[in-house]
Structures are given as C-alpha cells and as structure tokens.
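Holo prediction — nicotinamide-adenine-dinucleotide.
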Amino acid sequence: MDITENVFKLADEIGPERVVFLYEPRTQMKAIVVVDNVAAGPAIGGVRMAPDVTATEVRRLARAMTYKNVMAGLPHGGGKSGIIADPKTVNKEHVIRTFARAIKSLEEYIPGPDMGTDESDMAYIYDETSRAVGLPLELGGIPLDEIGATAYGVAVCTEVAKDYVPLDMNGASLTIEGFGNVGRPTARFLAERGVKLIATSDSKGTIYNPAGLNVEELIRIKDTTGSVINYKDGQVLKSTDLLMIKTDIFVPAARPDVVTDANADVVDAKLIIEGANIPISETAERMLHERGILVIPDFVANAGGVITASVEYHGGTETQAFERIKSTITRNTKEILDAVKNEKTYPREAAVRIAKQRVLRAMKYREWM
Ligand code: NAD
C-alpha cells in the first residue's frame, strides 16, 4: 500500500493533524512525529526510541495521548514521536539532538520521555528547542519516573476498579509484564496496599513464585544484574509465559500488542490495569470483557506520567502532581466503570465516547478548526 494511503486510512474527525517523517542524511536519523489534535493546547507526547517502532504504532499512540490528555483535563492535545534506533547501540545524545533540531519548528508538539528515552534526553531536546517535559530536577523538572508518577496512578486506578470486580486487595495476587519505570514502582505501590506480586517479566524472561516475590530484593536484582530472572527464589519461564499465569491483577507495563485475538484466551486474570500504552488490541479487550475480565484502558489508567509532565510545564510541584493524579484517575475510573455498569458497554467504548465528546467540544472553541 502507498504510504499516503496508509497514513490517511486512519484519519477521522479528530486527526491526525500532522504526520511528519524525518530523515537526516548525514547521521541517517529516521523518525516519525504525529501531532494528532491540538484543540485543547499544544500536544504533549513521548519520544519513543526503538529499532522496530512504526508509523502506525506512533499514530495509535498519538491518539491515545489525545484521549489521555483530554480525560485528565489538561490544556494539551495529543502527539507522539518515534525514533527508529536502538537506544543501547547508538550515540544517544547525538541522535536526540539531531531529532530535536529537526522538530524545532514543530511548535505545537512538546516532547516527553517514553520507552528508550529519559530525562537527560529531554534536557538535550530542551537545550535545542526550549520545549520538553519530564526534565531533570536541575532544570526545574519533576523526575516522573523516579517518583513513580505513572505507577502511582496505576495503583490509584486499581484501588477504585477492585470494587467493581469485586476483589479484596489484601493478599490479591499480581503479575506485571515489564519491570521498568512503570512496572517496578507499580509493584511497590501495590505491595503497600497488601497485594502480592507472584510474577514479573522483562525482555529476558519471567520470574514466578506463587508464594510471592520480595519486591525490594527483585528491584535490587534487576538493578545489579540487568534482569529479574536472576532472582533466586522463583521459577524462570519465558517472557511470554507470564500471560498464562493465573492471577487476580495483571498489569501489562512493557510493549504494545502483547495481548491480541491470538492469545487473549490464555489470559487468566480478574482485573487488568493497562500500565503500558496500547498493550491489548481492541478486539482482545472485547474478548476479555466477554469472559468477565475487567480491563481498564491505558489512557485512563496510565495518565499519571503526563499529568505530572503538565504540572511541571505549568510550574507546579511534585505534591500538586500526586494530588492531581489521585483526584483525576479516581474520578475517571469511577465515571467509566459506572457507565459500563449502567449502559452495558465495555470500558474502552465508554472511555472513548467520553474522551471523544470532550475533544469535539474543545474543537468547537477553536475558530481555525
Ligand atoms: P521501560 O523501558 O522503563 O521498561 C520497559 C520494561 O519492559 C523493561 O523492563 C523491559 O525489559 C521490559 N520488556 C521489554 N520487552 C519485553 C517483553 N517482550 N516481555 C516482557 N518485558 C519486556 O519503559 P516504561 O517507561 O516502564 O514504559 C513501559 C510502558 O508504559 C510503555 O508502553 C510506555 O509507553 C508506557 N507508559 C510509560 C509511562 C512512564 O511514565 N514511563 C507513562 C505512560 C505509559
């Protein structure tokens, strides 16, 4: 299919407003930027760096950001970018600065950190463009990964959603796919609420112990050896085996599309909180719903990071960010789950309907649109 056809195939009444392909011939830096919608304000969205990131993925993630930002009541639209490179093998500062110079004129896009990028990368982008969120402390940033902003929101969301299952948090089992910036603090925040982590994974494999894993020890092992599979007191399985483990709560916190129609039937959980972006395909979410598994969509559950980024951008503090995460995610989770109960719909359908109405209302205020 022609590239133009592919890009416009997914366009609708909301966006995307701009799809930009970047190529810098000297360094061969390749990137995609999608600005989905800016009716509420300049688009905030992460910069993903991965060798296999695609335009379709960036496009879907940009839409998720439009919905996430509008649901969180932020004065920002949604966007996303993907740099096609392996962060482990390239000269990252050089690639990031090249990317930043290429997006300097794209003023309606404010970059933030995502998989493969961090606060230092945002500092380089800020240095080149004077626009970035998720900055280091020294530049006035709130270190959102260090404080576990997204994970805190995931924990808040779990606390609200558990009443709709219903589920007792105390002693409930938990599996987490991916033990990175979202996965690790999610394990911590949920452990504080009495939940028992029984399995987690990274790109090297899964560690499983039905009697429970010690979260602090696991974090130490991941930090010192590079993988959770080096934790001693547990069974080592393949990364993909995590999905099949029977659990009360499952938090996907790694790559997109880990659950699709092809494997949705093996998932054995009562409640799924989407810590990652687009971890479950829409049809798989419906299949899970039909099997009585409650799935809270990404743009509702994992908004903690972007709420913090927006608080930072507008000069607020860490305390204000935590308060806003709690109030926003509590309200949104309840609103969506009440709609599911009363209207016999499923969570993503309810969430998309509410988010879309808000974007369309924001668009009405903008004469140029
Ligand atoms: P990260 O790079 O810190 O961690 C990702 C983890 O996933 C790592 O432990 C990695 O080993 C693991 N992983 C990679 N491939 C895997 C595989 N095939 N199986 C199992 N584990 C695998 O990234 P992150 O910041 O924690 O982000 C994770 C997800 O959450 C992404 O989808 C991201 O877009 C989303 N998200 C992150 C934030 C944030 O604040 N960091 C906010 C919202 C959404």
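READOUT: The chain is about 40% helix and 20% strand.
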